[in-house]
What we know:
Layout: H1 28-79, H2 83-90, H3 94-114, E1 116-120, H4 131-142, E2 150-154, E3 162-166, H5 170-183, E4 194-197, H6 201-221, E5 226-229, E6 232-235
Antiparallel strand pairs: 1-3, 1-4, 2-3, 5-6
Amino acid sequence: MSSTSIPSDSIILAPAEDRESKTPEMSFEDLYRVVVEMSTSLEQVTLQNNKLVQLNGELIKKVESLELSVKELKENCASKKTFAQVVTAGLKSSAAQVSFIKAAEIANDTEKRNAAVILDKVELPENVSDDGQFGQALLKACEVQEDSVSVFRLQKRVGPPLLKIQLQKKEDARKMMSQFNKIKSTVQGCSSAIIRPDLSKPERERQRAAWKEAVMKNNKAGEFLFTVRNLECVKVQYKEGEAHRAWEIRETRTSNTQ
């Protein structure tokens, strides 16, 4: 059987609507959903880009700050200034020098006062001209071992002058404070004397207030139960079975240093 060939230009195509469509149909809802998802994705990408730009700006600032710090460190190292040189430079100002001098004077004055005591109501005979001899006698009576002692007379408006006994160690001053009332009757002119620390003006005010409180409490108790230690009113620590010291009622304005 012979086949008959048909020329290509004689082939007749079927109409488009008669052919089966290979593209799936998309509804309006599906299309809307796709557009919304694309818009959301684009917004997220934009936000991420903005964050990256912000982080990049912060990173640039930190790098610039680090470069500046390194530069300053190099300049400081190049100067080769020691800590002592820096402090010395700061002390060149007159205000700084005055401040340090005052601090040193205060510290020195405090140390001297801690190593001194004040005696009040000392009745030295008129023929006693050498206060050094009186100081030595006081050291011996209190059993304080020091080679030398300085005695200064502090004039008061009324009555005999105060005597300032300047020792070398604060421990010796404390020992004299603790021993004085026991031995004062054996030292010429000290039978009625009162001893106290060499206090600054604010400390003296605190001591007066503390003694005022102690006197009021002792007056109320009718016996010696309160005294002053370290500028504070404290209770006397009697040993078990020890008799309490007698107390005479006195005015609260009276200060004491027993």
